[in-house]
Write the C-alpha cells for this entry.
Amino acid sequence: MMILQWRLPMVMWSFFLIYGMCFIFVFSTKTEFRIAWMAPKKEYYNLSAYSSVGALKIALSAIRRNPTNRIQSLHNSTIKVRWYDTDCNAKSALAAAVDAKSKFDPHLFLGPPCSVGMKGVALLASQWKTPVFGWVSQEEEFQDKKMYSTLVRFLGPLNRFPNVMFHLQSLFKWSQFSVVYDKRDPYRAVAEALYEKKSIENMDSSMNWYNIVNSFKVSNDMSDKQIEEIFRQIKKYSRIVVMALPWLDMRKYMLVAHKLGMSDGDYAFLCIHGDLYTYDRMETDVFSDLVWRKNDSYDSIAKDAFEPVFHVMMKPLEKTHWNLFKKIASDFTSSTNPNWNLPEPPEEYIPPDAYAPYLYDATLVWAILADKILKENKNPHDGEYMFLKATTLTDEVEVNGLTGKVNLDNHGDRNLNFQVLDMTENGTFESILTIKYQNKMMQVEFVNNKTEENLSRWPNGKVGIKYAPPDEPIYGFDGKKCPEQDEQPDRTFIYVFSAGGVVFVVVVATILYCILKLS
C-alpha cells in the first residue's frame, strides 16, 4: 500500500528550506489553482482567521516545497489564496461565496468553519460543482450528500456520537439515558445528534441501540431550584445522565445532583460535547482539578460529586506535536507571498486555535486529491468528482496528517478518535480509554494500564467496571418490577375457622344431649 505521510518533521524541513531560500518561489504558468479561504475576522468559539492563518501558510508552503515529491503535479503550479471574512453568520458567508465565485472562481472553497455559514456556502458550491472542504463544521445535516454533494469534512462530525455512546453502552451494560443539554447551538446540536441513531457500518444491524427516555434544556442563568426539579424528573426514569455541556460548567449541576443523593454510586454522569481543546488548555482545564476546585467552602463536596462523572471528548493533538506545531505556526504567521491575499497579523500575536491543525490537514488532503485527479487527466475543479475520490482515498492510500491518521468514510466525513476521562483519587483527570477507528470500524482500547478491574473509579472507593451502576433499579422505577404477590387466598384462616366450627357444634350437641337426658 502506498503511504502518504505528512508529519511534523517534514513540515519543519519545509520551514527551514523555505526560510533558507528567503521565500524565493519559481512558479510555472502551466497550472493555476485558486483557493477561497473563508474564515471570520472576529473570534467565535475560540476560533478566528488570525488564529488559523499560520496553519494554512504552513500547508501551502509544504505543498510547494514538499521534499518527498508526493504531490508532483502541484510542485510547479501556482496556488493563489484569497481570504473572505464570513463573520460566522449566514448572510455574510453567502455574500462572500458569491463574491468569490464572480471575481475569483476558486477551485476550492476552504471553509467557513461555522456551521451557520457553511450551510449556504456548501449549497452554493454544490450547485456550482465546486469542491468545499470544511475543517470544523460538525452538524448532523451535513451528512446529506445529496444536498451537500461537494462537501468533505475533516473534523469528526457530530453523527459519530451515537456510535461512541453505543460502545460505552456495551462496555458498561447501559441501555437507557436521560439527556441534559445547554441551549447554545454547539451543545444543542450534540443532543440532537444523540437522537439520530444510525446503523453502525459493518456491524450487525440487530444490535440493540440505547434509548433516550427524556431530555432537558438548561442554561447558565437557571437557578439551583430549577436544576433540582430537572434532576427530580430524571430520577423517576433514569440512572445514567448524559450532560451535553461545556466541561467547566459541570460543577453547578453536580452540586445539585449531590444534594439529591445522585453521587452515592447509584447514578453515572457522562459529560459529552464537540469542543476541541489545544493541549495547553487540556492541561489547565481538563486534566487538572479546575472543573471542581474553586477554592471555596464547597470544594470538598464538589470533588465527591464528580466521582461518578466521565468526560467524553474528541482526542486532541499529543503534547509534543502540539508544541512543535505551535512553534512553527508562530514563525509562519507573518510570512508573505505574492499569491497570498491573507489577513495581516494583528499587533498582538494570536496563538493557533485547537482547530487549526485540521485546516492544515484539509489543505494537504485537497492537494493529494488534486494531484490524483490531474494524473487521471480529469478536472480538479469538478467538486463532485473530487468528492467521489475523497470517499475512497483512505482506502487506497494511508494518509497521516498533523492530527493523526486521516480516515474518510463513504460520506466524505472524517472518522475521528474519542477519549474518555475519569477522575483520579487526587481529583485530577486522566484518560482511561480511547474509542478509535480502525479500518472504518470503531474499537475500544484501554489506556494508561487500565483493565476491566481498574478501569473506572466510583463513589465509596469502589474500582472497576463491575461496580458501574445499573441503568435501572433492581425492582424498576417506582417498584414496577417487584415480584408479584401470591393472589391465592390464605387458607389457614379457613382451616382454623372450620375446625373451630366443628368443635363448637360438637360442644353444643353434647350439651343439648345432656339436657335432654336429664329431663
Remarks:
- The first strand starts at residue 2 and ends at 5.
- The chain has two domains: 2-155+318-353+355-406, 160-316+417-467.
